[in-house]
Amino acid sequence: ATLKDDLIGTWKILESWLMYSGSNEIAKLCDKSKGLWPRGNWPGYMELLCQPILEIKYFMNGIKTERKGHGDPKDIAPTIETLNEAQRYSRCIVGAVALYTIYGDHCKLKDVIEKIEEEISPKVDEKLEGYLRKDGGNLQNQLNKCEGIDIPTLLVGKALLQDKIKEWVREDRAKGKDEGGAWRAGGQLLWRMKQRCTNNRPNDIGKVEQVMGEAKENNKGSTATFLGIKSDDKSTEGALMSEIMEDDDKFSSSKLGEMLNTAVKEAMTGGKNINVDSLVQSIKKGAEKTVAEACTQKRSGNGVKDDLCRRVECVARHWEKIKEPTGTAEKTEPCERLSCIVQYLKTRDTAAATGAVPGTGGSTTPTNNFWEKENGDVAKLWQELSQAMIDNGKNNQSGCDGMTDASPSEQTACKFLHAGFKELYNPTTSSASTSSTTGDVLKNNPSFRQTMGCFLLHAYAKHMKDKAVCDIEEGIKQAFESWQDLSTKAAGACNDKDKKCIPCKWEEDNFKGCEIEKKGATGEKENVENKLKNIIDKDGNDPKMKEMAQKINEVTKLCDQVKCVTARWMSQNKAGGTGTRTWDEVWGQVQEQISPLRTALGSATKTNKGNVESYCQGLPQGVDKEACLLIAAGLKNLYDIQESDAVEASFKRTMRCVLLNAIADKLQHDNFPCKDEKKVSTGIDYAFKTKNKDIKDASDGCNDDNCFQCERYEDNFKNCKVNNTVEVKDKVEEVLKNEGKEEMTKINDQAIKDI
């Protein structure tokens, strides 16, 4: 179905709902006996006008209530519909446009809406949520989901719907109450309105037309927040509905209607179908011809908003995206929002060429200022977020507290990201709650800031995931998931009726595939992930990124190192991409690491000390140097591992570290000859504790932040278990006694016997 077909089809559903007399449930919510309405003659009109308004609210949320029969005091069981995103979007637009097109000239509409918002709406929301949760339905996520409906969206909807709805209104009102007009539209409700609003002169056509015209003007200031629709321009309450109720000639005078009407007409194919690409191009053309100036100023005299052009343009794109198969709409949304920002910047580039945008000129354009690597808007936002992560990410974060079984790396990754989100949604740093074109584009446009912040935190998480020695996926997921309920998590910035926020989901694949239009290259695209790499990492020279990577890879206990490194190694595909690895392969790798370690230890003899002797020069007098040389050689060997695959290298280092500790155990065992006289333990500790970092820093493979430091394990390592039940120490001993026995004999003959 096309965009127009979707809306017309949705309107036909609402039309059928408004044709019948309504349910007892809705009638009771509007009942005059509750003291909601003024005394005297007014209740019969205002309580009836209240009913179709609530009907529209129910319709937008997918709940249909109905009497068992005409005049029956009981209702049938409500119908609860599961609405996908496209259906919710269409119902939001149709409901808002229909409300003000059908009832906008009622003299008491504004009063009734105010009463609904103040007293009735909370009860309605409670009932609707109860229905959506009924029998484990878990549909409460579709309650009041109209926050994204703004002026451009409603204007596109109005341009496509108004003729159809107005035709129905004319026909229904022509029937009147005696000829079958709908009870809550052109029949009984219209008759009561004529009576009450003309002081009982319903047949005075001139008077009726006068009061209806006055009512339409008066109702333009009303709002529709009870429908779940919120304007992102909070400086003028009721702006959304005022735009719907403008007549066509008023649209022309504001130049907006002309743009929309031309765009829709030019995009029509075959009489009714609308080509979205054509619509977007027509809107662009219309904007360039008729509203370029209004769209690049802060606010023109007639109230057209600065970023209206790009937002109208995005409506058509978004509409097509949400009609894609289930599950794809959410995935494309962040990238779609970024595309809208790019389009917005393009309109400002055009305006900058005429000097309409302050602070631009020559080669400096809003787009260049936005993406500039060092001091651009995106770079400044990243500096703000990353600084908050450095300052606060080392402390406990509430959203990460529940990760009781997580590795230290997962916990650290979660805490850094959580601190970044906290800064992103911080009301004191998020600046304005409404949009502006002056100054920093991201600071002055909250939705832009949150969209770009989401991309930056994705880029950061992806970078850290690649740099991390351990698997930190669960830590990343936890941080993102902990910031989904923004109404409670960021109440100061997102829970006020004047403020709305965009949640950021961890969608690595969709982030990776996001492309935007390349500046100055028509038809060419560029990958957003690649565009952000240099901003967040500065070609590998960002000190904050280095510090965070170092902290994430800072796992001091050997048991934790073994667990996280083996988990990451096992999760990778085997060579050729044929499945993941098994625990048998892990223990097979332990055996394979004995041979290269044995070669290194063989060099640490009195006759061939290699280049490790310097690390044992400072031993106290009387301590035999050989044990120190042996451990130093082992440490140098594992730190010198160089692999193109960082995960493979880390796994091998960790396995050799476990083996080196096992060899140290043998040197310190009670049956090792003369161990006390030679002070073997002192030599081992000197290499492990005093010179370890020096050996690591001077190595060929560990001069960055991708390596653990191989520590001497404590006594509690004997309780270190992997795969739930396997004790690492016992398993390594088993490997050394069986598959690795021959290599261990060589180590003893070449190195240990000399101590």
TrEMBL record:
Family annotation (InterPro entries): SICA_extracell_a, SICA_extracell_b
Domain Schizont-infected cell agglutination extracellular alpha: 2-168
Annotated Schizont-infected cell agglutination extracellular beta domain residues: 335-516, 557-722
Domain of life the protein comes from: Eukaryota
Name of this chain's protein: SICAvar, type I
Species annotation: Plasmodium knowlesi (strain H)
Taxon lineage: Eukaryota, Sar, Alveolata, Apicomplexa, Aconoidasida
